[in-house]
Amino acid sequence: MKLFNTASRRIEEVKPQKPPAITVYTCGPTVYDYAHVGHWFTYVRADILIRALKAAGFKPQWVMNITDVGHLVSDADHGEDKLEKSARREGKTAWEIADYYTKDFVLGMQELNITKPAKMPKATEHIADQIKLIQKLESKGFTYVIDDGVYYDTAKFPRYAEFARLDLDEQQAGARVSSNPQKHNPSDFAVWKFSPAGQQRDMEWDSPWGTGFPGWHIECSAMSMKYLSETLDMHTGGIDHIPVHHTNEIAQSEAATGQQFVRHWMHSDHIMIEGEKISKSLVNGISLQEVISEGFPPEALRLYVLESHYRGQSKFNWDGLQAANNRLDDLRAMAALRWQPRGVTHDMPTFALEEVATTLTDFLANDLDTPQALAFLSQITTQLLTVHIEEDMVDHLGAMLKGIDDLLGLNLSAVQDISPAQKELLRQRETARANQDWKLSDEIRDRLKTEGIGLNDAARGVIWYPLWLSYKPSNQ
Ligand SMILES: [Zn+2]
């Protein structure tokens, strides 16, 4: 399997240390608000990586953290803790905020059919591990203490600028005024922050240096190495993690262990919405619940994500989501063919149903080429909807759907047969159409629609397929 590696800026063969096992760490959400579609793009893409690795014969051990403390508003080391800020906004404690949005995130993962990681460790449950790692860095001379915390001295790690190709001189010139002037270098970052004087935070702990909380970056180093290995086979995240968060993870981890931290880095590019990068500060974050309440199934968002390549800038807009949803209807109609084989088809498809999953696997093994995989899937869908299937193809189609679901997570195997009463309605509609009774034909179509069944009047006869509302309790 080949995948672009951010570290080398080249497409490389994926080579874990102990195949078929492969350790993968993903930077998880900061649980201070609902995840927005931009976040979900990144997590769906991480999920596709895991599915592609499995299909390529690897056994991924996947860990995704939950950041529930220490992520400051600026991403650097100043400004308020995002959790404490949300707590004030909502009149709750930071603990309640973390609990609520963690549960919402996990629910969103289930709705989007994202593979369940082996572990989702929380930063607040690993304070001792983080303190131990800071002590290790301290004993090796990589840290210093100033009035607001313990900092990592980036000048002591000569490779600091390498990963992100940073221009540290430029950073020096552009150093923010709001950053602590006691810092030795502008790129130095906090591994432990002290609670502000005279102020008690909801989340704070004792440490050898004073009461406070861990910096954002140290949790990922501590938890990934604890649950996986000192050298990770793969690490994923969003592209905006490269210059600060992942650069700092590398500096901390490699200084502590003296070993390479990550062999293969994968980063998902930005998502644009109406031409702007999605971020909470732009107040244009759209949550998964908003997508669902607009009438779209989570699978439509998933399909939308897969339509773009993870290394290209993608955009989100409602028209694009509608187009993905139409495409999903076609896929479900194709899946429903399993329940409506014809006695004799006039033509056979030009491809073997048994080989579809292999072809899709090959596309994913080529730097996760999901756009090509979907283009291929559309081709075979169009063909099957034209020629229909015969009885003896039903099992092959079932196996093909399972293969597609394993790779792309679109839940096509979940498409079930309609009831005998609905089949009777379909027969009545066929009769009405034969008698050119269009009024009755339309009435039956509308009735089936309210029951969650869509109809596709194909050249060789009608094909029914399940609509999204058949997955949700209807209000009617
Ligand atoms: Zn991280």
What does this structure look like?
With 476 residues, the protein is α/β, with parallel strands linked by helices. Strands 4-3-9-10 form a 4-stranded parallel sheet, sandwiched between helices. Helices cover 42% and strands 15% of the residues. Strand 9, helix 7 and strand 10 (262-268) form a beta-alpha-beta unit. The chain has 2 domains: 2-268, Rossmann fold, CATH 3.40.50.620; 320-471, Four Helix Bundle (Hemerythrin (Met), subunit A) (Up-down Bundle). Bound molecules: zinc ion. Residues 27, 220, 245 line the site of zinc ion (ZN).
Task: Present the secondary structure layout.
Layout: E1 2-5, E2 10-13, E3 21-26, H1 37-55, E4 59-64, H2 82-90, H3 94-111, H4 127-139, E5 143-146, E6 149-152, H5 168-173, E7 189-194, E8 212-214, H6 216-227, E9 232-238, H7 242-257, E10 262-268, E11 271-273, E12 276-277, H8 288-293, H9 298-306, E13 314-316, H10 318-336, H11 356-365, H12 370-387, H13 394-408, H14 420-434, H15 438-450, E14 453-458, E15 461-466
Parallel strand pairs: 3-4, 3-9, 9-10, 11-13
Antiparallel strand pairs: 1-2, 5-6, 6-7, 7-8, 11-12, 14-15
The structure holds zinc ion.
